Amino acid sequence: MKKFIGVDLGGTNLRVGIVDLETGTVLALRSIPTLAREGHDAVIHRMTNLILNIICDNKISKKDLGGIGVGVPGVLDLEKGTVIFVPNLPDKWLNVPLRDTIAEQTGLPVALLNDARAITYGEWKFGAGHGVDTIACFTIGTGVGGGLVVNGQLHLGISGTAGELGHQTIDYNGPQCGCGNYGCLEAYASGPAISAMGIKAVLQGLTTNIGKLVDYDINKITPDVITEAARQGDRVAKEIYDQVGKYFGIAIANVLVSVGPRKVVMGGGVAAAGELLFASIRRTICDRVTVMPVDQVELVAASLGDRAGVLGVAVWASQKLIDV
Amino acid sequence: MKKFIGVDLGGTNLRVGIVDLETGTVLALRSIPTLAREGHDAVIHRMTNLILNIICDNKISKKDLGGIGVGVPGVLDLEKGTVIFVPNLPDKWLNVPLRDTIAEQTGLPVALLNDARAITYGEWKFGAGHGVDTIACFTIGTGVGGGLVVNGQLHLGISGTAGELGHQTIDYNGPQCGCGNYGCLEAYASGPAISAMGIKAVLQGLTTNIGKLVDYDINKITPDVITEAARQGDRVAKEIYDQVGKYFGIAIANVLVSVGPRKVVMGGGVAAAGELLFASIRRTICDRVTVMPVDQVELVAASLGDRAGVLGVAVWASQKLIDV
Q1: Which single residue of A199, A219, B106, B124 could bond B129 by disulfide (Cβ 3.0 to 4.6 Å)?
Q2: Range 6-25 of A in CB contact (< 8 A) with B
Q3: Architecture of domain B3-120+306-320
Q4: What number is the ipTM of this complex?
């Protein structure tokens, strides 16, 4: 079976891996800074360079490659192979013909997929979601991404746009989200939103422990720092994760009553907070969901880490480019 | 092909039909008052009586019948064939072994399905949702029911509980819902919630037109009365439907970003308000949804009326009881 290249275009890092789908392993993986502020042309150029280099350096012949899958943190048109927009990158990547540009620059067939859907698919195929017919996955980073596998199929909806679980409204009068809507989960519980909760607590003088961890430089407050403070016993930091878990629980409750997955997989950096976050999510869904058997739903942490996106998008490419 | 009996157990009326699935027609249909306050045993007895009578009177032999499908307005355990609870019936029908009881009393095999899922399936197979792979359906009555067809399959989730679109939280600080949760769509936009908006407006003296239509007896204010007042030009009645459309729009937006149906079908009595309601829903989803192509989603009224549930549950029974 041919190997596939998986690309994970993140806001911070750009990862490229060679994937063996038979064993579900990443044979080689490289990561470079995305440097998104340089604009999409520069990023794409650096991406194709990295792809060609990893192929050469690993002495793989192009004819042994089935193609390239690219995970993109934005709204795509899968039919046209274009990026419609990327909310969290500086120049937004408006209507960029990404599929054909990469295909041209590499001489290999390309399939695009939203990055969170790629992680969902990777976790379902090889990771924490394995063995279950229907899962929901949340990825918590700069934004809150999501994806669904329904009855053993990655659920795409219209042109791959389904599964945007972070853009569910949990309070229609809530704060504005990067997507333009008001009260989306992402507006409450993304990485930056969590950091802001920590910054606010420090500025209000509610805790000194978070501040101490960053030498009182609030620029350095991240969800990881808040996790660290909570693990050291800081009450305010714990309350922040309680609150974040409540927000996630409300959105997950919506997914449970509408889609009814057997597993909910939590991925992305913030999910590393583990039980700090998960205990509150579990409490919230038990409190709020009565119309489906919530005891039959498992909440689990993603298990593939950085490799989930690369693996998932490679699986996707192998399906999409099957006739190539 | 064998015929099927479809039963639609409503809070007000109990309907039984003989269904020819080849043509998608209801050959005979009878409706009696449910008299739910008499308790589940009495209702089930009246139901099986009506089933046996309609079979006899139409001179159909039991061997020409494939079985009975029963649509129930509550939470079911499809594997066990039991009703877990019915929020909007007086005695709640807690853990009633409905499937086996009807099978015993009629001598025919029985399959249960949530009533809104039955309507969803009926509308998808023979009505307003026909010809589209993925649809979402809302049914607005005493509660707000829902259902999903995903990739040409009625989406069941865990034991048939998926598709409870009326129990999505649209404001986590919102009013309590009959299901126990806070801020569900149903708590804002069910038939009783809409009636209450009309009653409040009359009591506040904001409009005389709604009051006039019911001879100033607020007990008689229903969504239909408010629709009538709006059609006669009453500003307050129009505003009520604007607001109700906004609530539905927010919940529909959640379904669009997560599931991405190509069609959203609106059924139940309140949907008869038509454009009074739909215009506001369209405006809301256009305003709120940016992460999927909302212009590719059609919002339509259900087209099968009272027959949708009977037809849908008969289709379901034909699948479920296929080996009988």
Answers
A1: B124
A2: none
A3: 2-Layer Sandwich (3.30)
A4: 0.95
